[in-house]
Design a protein that fits this description.
Shape: elongated
Number of helices: 18
Mean pLDDT: 84
C-alpha cells in the first residue's frame, strides 16, 4: 500500500513547479506545502499498528502548528526541536519535508538534499522528496567525485521509483482531470529528465534519448532536458547532427527567454558544432529563429554537411583540410584516416586563441585557430599540449604562431580539433603584451551630509 495517499500527493503535485533557471527551480521544487489542517489530517498515511496514528498530546499539535506558520529560517530550528521531542510522530515525514523545503529556500542545497534523503528513510514513497532529489541531482552532480557511480545509481533508482508511484496514483475526488494530469506530467518530466541525465553521464545515449524524449513530451519547455537531448544526439553513434543542432538551438532559445546564464556558452558551443559540420555559419541564425517557436524540428529538417573543401591557396588551411576532412565523415572512413596519420609529424600555423596551464607543472596548452570558419565561431582547431617553453605564456589572443609536433588525438565536437604534442616554432615574445591603460576619471569627492541638512 502506498504510504502517501492520493489527496496529499495531488496537493503536492499542483503546488510545485520548475522554472528554467536551475537554482530558482530547485528552490521552487522544495517549497513547503501549505494546506488546510483538516485536509492534511485526511490525507495522512495510515500508519502501521506499532506506530502512532494521531497526536500524542495537545502540546505536540501546538508545536507542529507553530512550526508550519514560520518562515524558512525560523522553521528549521523549530522543526529540529519538534523531531527531537517527538521522534516517532506520525507527521515525521511531513516535518522532514518541510525542513527540506526550508533549506532549499535559504539556498543551503547540501542540507536540503540531506533532508530529502532523510524523508525517504522515513517515507520511501514520498513523491515530494523523490521529485526534489531527482530535480536537483543533475545540478549538484560532480563528475570527479570518487563516489559518482553510486550517486548515479541512487539517482536513477529514486527517479524510477517516482515514475512507478506516479503510475499507481489515483485521482482524488473533487480534482479535475486537467489539474491532475498537469501535476502528473510535471513530476514525470522531472523524473525522466533525471533518468536521461544519468544515462548521458554513463554514455548510454540510446536510453538517455528515450528518457529525455519522454520528459520533453510532458514538458516541451524543460530547458535542460532539451539541452541534454541535444548532447545525446550529438554523441550517439552515428552522430545525429540534424537533431543535435535543432534541439541545441531550442535549448538556447529557452535559456535566453529565462535569462539563464548558460545561454551564451551553450550558443557558442552550438555555433562551433554547426560550423564544424556545415562548414560556415550560413543558416545558423535561421535555425535559432525557427527553434525559438517550435518544440520539434519540421518534417524533413536537415543540416547540409560541408562538401569536401576546395583548395584555397593558403597552405596552412589546405594542409589542415587534407588531414581532417576524412575525420569529419565519421565511421570507417574516419577510423582509417586516423589510423594512417596518428603519430605523424605535422607543421602548421594559425592564430592563437588562448594559452592555458597544462596538467603537468610548467607546461602549457596553446589553442590555435586555422580555418576561417573556426575563427568566425570563436573556436580553435589545434590544441598544442605539453609545451614546456616558458615564453609560451606570453602569447596573446590573435598572435600568429607556427608549431610542429606529433598528432596525438582528435575530437569531433564541437568542431574537429586535433591534439598535437609539440612546440611553437615561431618567435615567442619576451614579455606578455601590455594593454594600454584606460583613462582614469576622477569623481569629485562629496562629504556626507550632516544630519538634518
Amino acid at each position: 500500500m502506498m504510504k502517501t495517499t492520493a489527496l496529499w500527493t495531488l496537493t503536492v503535485l499542483v503546488s510545485l513547479s520548475s522554472g528554467a533557471v536551475a537554482a530558482k527551480s530547485a528552490n521552487r521544487s522544495a517549497r513547503p506545502v501549505h494546506f488546510a489542517f483538516g485536509a492534511r489530517m485526511q490525507a495522512l498515511p495510515q500508519a502501521a499498528a506499532s506506530k502512532p496514528t494521531t497526536w500524542s498530546s495537545r502540546e505536540e499539535y501546538d508545536a507542529y502548528m507553530a512550526m508550519i506558520k514560520e518562515q524558512p529560517a525560523k522553521l528549521i530550528p523549530l522543526a529540529d526541536a519538534f523531531l527531537q521531542k517527538y521522534p516517532n510522530s506520525f507527521v515525521k515525514a511531513d516535518v522532514l519535508a518541510r525542513i527540506m523545503g526550508a533549506y532549499a529556500q535559504t539556498n543551503d542545497m547540501p542540507k536540503a538534499v540531506e533532508a530529502g534523503q532523510n524523508v525517504l528513510k522515513t517515507d520511501p514513497d514520498n513523491l515530494a522528496a523523490l521529485r526534489f532529489l531527482s530535480f536537483t541531482f543533475p545540478f549538484l552532480y560532480k563528475p570527479d567525485d570518487p563516489n559518482k557511480d553510486a550517486a548515479l545509481t541512487t539517482a536513477d533508482a529514486n527517479a524510477r521509483h517516482g515514475l512507478d508511484l506516479l503510475g499507481k496514483l489515483q485521482k482524488p475526488q473533487g480534482v479535475s482531470d486537467g489539474d491532475f494530469q498537469k501535476g502528473v506530467k510535471e513530476f514525470r518530466a522531472v523524473f525522466n529528465s533525471c533518468i536521461g541525465f544519468v544515462a548521458l553521464q554513463k554514455k548510454d545515449y540510446p536510453n538517455a534519448l528515450t528518457a529525455l524524449k519522454a520528459a520533453t513530451d510532458d514538458n516541451p519547455n524543460a530547458t535542460y532536458a532539451v539541452y541534454w537531448m541535444s548532447l545525446s544526439y550529438l554523441y550517439s553513434t552515428p552522430r545525429d547532427y540534424d537533431h543535435a543542432i535543432w534541439y541545441g538551438a531550442r535549448a538556447v532559445a529557452l535559456a535566453k527567454a529565462a535569462k539563464d546564464p548558460n545561454a551564451d556558452p551553450w550558443e557558442k558551443f552550438l555555433k562551433q558544432t554547426y560550423v564544424g559540420y556545415h562548414g560556415t555559419d550560413t543558416g545558423f541564425t535561421d535555425i535559432e529563429t525557427q527553434a525559438a517557436t517550435a518544440a520539434n524540428p519540421p518534417d524533413g529538417f536537415k543540416v547540409q554537411q560541408a562538401k569536401a573543401p576546395e583548395k584555397t591557396g593558403d597552405n596552412m588551411v589546405d594542409n589542415f583540410n587534407l588531414l581532417t576532412y576524412p575525420l569529419t565523415l565519421g565511421g570507417e572512413t574516419a577510423q582509417k584516416q586516423w589510423d594512417g596519420i596518428k603519430g605523424q609529424e605535422v607543421a602548421l600555423g594559425g592564430l592563437v586563441v588562448s594559452v592555458d596551464k597544462g596538467t603537468d607543472p610548467d607546461t602549457y596548452l596553446v589553442h590555435i585557430a586555422i580555418l576561417p570558419s573556426t575563427k568566425s565561431a570563436d573556436g580553435y582547431d589545434i590544441e598544442l599540449k605539453d609545451s614546456k617553453q616558458p615564453k609560451v605564456k606570453n602569447l596573446a589572443k590573435g598572435d600568429l604562431a607556427t608549431f610542429s609536433g606529433t598528432l596525438d588525438s582528435y575530437t569531433a565536437t564541437p568542431n574537429l580539433i586535433l591534439t598535437v604534442v609539440g612546440t611553437i616554432t615561431s618567435d615567442l615574445p619576451d614579455q606578455p603584451e601590455t594593454k594600454p591603460k584606460a583613462p582614469v576619471h576622477h569623481t569629485p569627492v562629496h562629504k556626507p551630509a550632516t544630519p538634518g541638512s
